[in-house]
């Protein structure tokens, strides 16, 4: 493992800003680009949203960010993963390592983990790198949802992938 995961803190705001600004070109087609978005994201952390930063162990840089959003407990215990990787770490396999750690944390029982049973990833069909990521993590293709999310000024179709804890081999 070349990476570790941790929750973001307010002192990460500047490093997060630089990482997003370095990465605009590959983020912009697929996700909102919010270099100054960390403080607001920290304010929104709670039962329904947990964010993890993926940290490169060698230099402490931010490899990427993963939101576990729309968390619903009770009989569902479900969350939706959304993620971005940042220059210069993108395409080096570190994001895949980090997301494996996030999935593992999600499926680990409380209080160490989030105690979830099922995770979803929704990806625009043309987002080849993210579709590859969902498959690399072992997520199953579950279906196609027309006009699912509002991104870049339009309702975008998404392919839906999912994984339950029974299918997760662990890290
Ligand atoms: C989707 C996204 C998060 C993928 O991140 P990434 O940085 O490419 O992730 P990784 O580096 O872990 O991906 C592995 C790639 O690195 C390559 N790689 C290089 N060295 C590697 C190593 N030592 N181990 C594993 N893979 C390695 C793999 O071959 C793979 O390339 P491939 O996809 O061409 O096969 C990133 O492209 C991104 O942020 N996109 C924009 C935002 C976005 O689309 N978010 C998701 C919305 S649903």
Automatic annotation (TrEMBL):
Origin superkingdom: Bacteria
Listed PROSITE patterns: GNAT (PS51186)
Residues annotated as domain N-acetyltransferase: 3-166
The keyword DNA-binding appears for this protein: no
GO cellular component, one term: cytoplasm
Coiled coil feature spans: none
Keyword line: Acyltransferase, Transferase
A GO molecular function held by the record: protein-N-terminal-alanine acetyltransferase activity
Entries under InterPro entries matching the protein: Acyl_CoA_acyltransferase, GNAT_dom, N-acetyltransferase
Keyword set includes Nucleotidyltransferase: no
Pfam (any one): Acetyltransf_3
Family note: Belongs to the acetyltransferase family. RimJ subfamily.
PANTHER family: [RIBOSOMAL PROTEIN US5]-ALANINE N-ACETYLTRANSFERASE (PTHR43792:SF8), GNAT FAMILY, PUTATIVE (AFU_ORTHOLOGUE AFUA_3G00765)-RELATED-RELATED (PTHR43792)
Protein name stated in the entry: Ribosomal-protein-alanine N-acetyltransferase
Natural source organism: Actinacidiphila paucisporea
